[in-house]
Amino acid sequence: MARLEVNVDHVATLRQARMINEPDPVTAAALAELAGADGIIVHLREDRRHIQDRDVILLRQTIKTRLNLEMAATPEMIGLARQIKPHVATLVPEKRAELTTEGGLDVMGLQDHIRQAVSQLQEAGIYVSLFVDPRADQLQAAAATGALCVELHTGAYAEAISEADADRLFEELLSAAAHARQLGLRVKAGHGLNYQNIKRFRGRREFEEYSIGHSIISRAVLVGLDAAVREMIVLING
Ligand code: PXP
Questions:
Q1: Pocket-testing residue among 7, 51, 216, ligand 1, by greatest number of atoms within 8 A of Cβ
Q2: Residues framing ligand 1 (Cβ under 6 A)
Q3: Active-site positions?
């Protein structure tokens, strides 16, 4: 069975909109685990726009499955990861102005830098995964860094505007996954996956794990709204 790691960044986005202490991504992580999630993911961004250092520290202490820390390969983040020791670190590119991660890591262009980051994290006992576009050259470069795993960027597939495009981009993901496995890498997939576009992946053995955030948190807001409104009406009226 494929595993699901749930990204709780957007619970923190909602909290930071008010700068108060709820909703707490740490509580959300516990609920996701109780529902069967195989791991929890957070992206600690340089600008701390959603997840805070405190969240990562508490998650490391409290979650029962696995903590996957998405991070840029900067000295600050590497230092924090080496202290907090998440089970997994996923290296991603990061630009200050982006709304979410755009594109995979340019492992080919940053080979020495990424190799060094991978080894600094691995020395601290952290399992390292690289978020890459489904391209042969990037996969070869990823394997050469010593990382044991790649997460294939599914964003282009998720944004396909026609079924034919989605079919073609899905095939590209399948070939990239096969190539990565030939290179000895474990293969995950993520970004933009939702309750519709995940269906093509059902039963595919090429991918061991999915990393999904926004669509799950969006769904939770909507499916939870009915109960939340009813509870408030009872409180108002006694
Ligand atoms: N994988 C990576 C590397 C990401 O940066 C993100 C977004 O934080 C995701 C997966 C999850 O994407 P989404 O929120 O669209 O499910």
A1: 7
A2: 7, 9, 43, 70, 90, 92, 100-101, 131, 151, 190-193, 211-215
A3: 43, 70, 191
Task: Tell me the CA end-to-end span of the chain in Å, nearest whole number.
Answer: 47
pLDDT, tens only, 119-156: 999 999 999 999 999 999 999 999 999 999 999 999 99
pLDDT one-digit tens code per residue, 216-238: 999 999 999 999 999 999 999 98
Q: What is the mean pLDDT of residues 170-179?
A: 98
Instruction: Please name the residue whose Cα sits nearest to atom 12 of ligand 1.
Output: 191
DSSP code at position 228: H
Q: What is the CATH number of the domain that holds 189?
A: 3.20.20.70
Query: Please, what's the b/e burial string for 59-93 (b: 16 or more CB within 10 A of its CB; e: otherwise)?
Result: bbeebebbbbbbbbbeeebbebbeebebbbbbbbb
Atom 5 of ligand 1, nearest CA residue? 101
Phi/psi for 219 (5° steps) reads -65, -40
| Amino acid letter, residue 26 | V
pLDDT recorded at residue 238: 85
pLDDT above 80 for 176:
yes
In the chain, the number of structural domains is 1
Range of the domain at 135: 3-237
Does pTM surpass 0.90? yes
Atom of ligand 1 nearest to the CA of 191: 12
Q: Which of 211, 212, 216 to mutate to test the pocket of ligand 1 (most atoms within 8 A of CB)?
A: 211
Nearest ligand 1 atom to the CA of 216 is: 16
